[in-house]
Amino acid sequence: MLAILLTEVSQQAAKCIPAMVCPELTEQIRREVAASLHQRKGDFACYFLTDLVTFTLPADIEDLPPTVQEKLFDEVLDRDVQKELEEESPIINWSLELATRLDSRLYALWNRTAGDCLLDSVLQATWGIYDKDSVLRKALHDSLHDCSHWFYTRWKDWESWYSQSFGLHFSLREEQWQEDWAFILSLASQPGASLEQTHIFVLAHILRRPIIVYGVKYYKSLGNEEQRERLLREWLDCCVTEGGALVAMQKSSRRRGHPLVTQMVDKWLDRYRQIRPCTSLSDGEEDEDDEDE
Questions:
Q1: pTM
Q2: Helix 197-207 to helix 148-165 angle, to the nearest 10 degrees?
Q3: Could you tell me what percent of the chain has a pLDDT over 70?
Q4: By CB count within 10 A, which of 61, 85, 119, 162 is most buried?
Q5: Residue 107: phi, psi to the nearest 5?
Q6: Could you tell me which of 160, 134, 120, 89 has the C-alpha nearest to residue 247?
Q7: Is the dihedral of CA 206, 15, 225, 87 positive or negative?
Q8: pLDDT by residue (tens digit) across 171-214?
Q9: Backbone conformation region of residue 7, classed left if phi is above 0, alpha if psi is from -120 to 50, else beta
Q10: pLDDT of residue 31
Q11: Alpha-carbon distance 234 to 125, whole Å?
């Protein structure tokens, strides 16, 4: 039976991503991710992933009937985020060369809209799964804790410079800096707790690749409360949004996909290949006219 997660979204639509359709393969991928995590030796004992993989939507989606494609995208995408990033504040898919000539577009995948959404998005953009077992969160916390003397200095310098760039000239006692740093460490250890810029910086070290976060101006929570979000851009490579992941659909890619992820996506796509396209009303009326003749 297909595992379909119902979520309260604006259109009240059922969401279905590849990881939900193939639980056995998903668990194998989670074990693969855990096995790929290692800790560096020496003073900078930060965790890192040995495998560099990127999740992409299969170009075979374009071979599906238009009505089936719409159903697939309704179930896998965050339409509100896609519209804002692509139309209202066009910062993705604006290049005709990439979108048309190279058949490569970015799509905003739906996410669970919880405090773990950033970690989920990072794993979605790379392995196509959620951080359900908090493997990535644990690696984040341990890296922050074990390399605290490195990251703390960088964080403190950045916060001081950032405040001064806005004309805020003030100084904190070392005890206050330590209290703020302890709070950042505590966020990394709490499942469901929201993460900040420093956590993204550490995640980039764990992934061994740059990260850029595309922020939407507003987002609606499950209580339909609109909250202002700040646009945060770090680095361009692993693309995530503050509510989900941005993944590409392209016919060819230099990025290496993991065989298990490829199997998972193929099984997910088979679900849509078996759907018969709906016959339009006009087609039905024409058939009736033919029978009358």
A1: 0.73
A2: 130
A3: 73
A4: 119
A5: -125, 140
A6: 120
A7: positive
A8: 788 999 999 999 999 999 998 888 888 999 999 999 998 888 77
A9: beta
A10: 94
A11: 16
**Closest of 19, 26, 17, 55 to residue 207, by C-alpha:** 55
State the pLDDT at residue 11.
42
Q: What is the DSSP string of the chain?
A: ----EE---TT--EE--HHHH-HHHHHHHHHHHHHHEEE--SS---EEES-----EE-GGGGGS-HHHHHHHHHHHB-HHHHHIIIIIS--SS--HIIIIIS--EEEEE----STTHHHHHHHHHHTSS--TT-HHHHHHHHHHHHTHHHHHHHHHHHHHHHHHHTT------HHHHHHHHHHHHHHHHSTT----HHHHHHHHHHHTS-EEEEPPSEEE-TT--EEE-------SSEEEESSSEEEEE-S--SSPPPHHHHHHHHHHHHHHHTPPPPPPHHHHHHHHHHHH-
For the record, the structure tokens of 249 come out as 């659909």
Mean pLDDT of 262-272: 78
Beta partners for residue 219, in sequence order: 227
Q: Is the pLDDT of residue 253 over 70?
A: no
Predicted confidence (pLDDT) per residue in 4-55, tens digit? 332 333 344 567 888 888 889 999 999 999 999 999 999 999 999 998 888 8
The answer for residues whose C-beta is within 8 angstroms of residue 129's C-beta and 6 or more apart is 19, 26, 29, 30, 33, 123
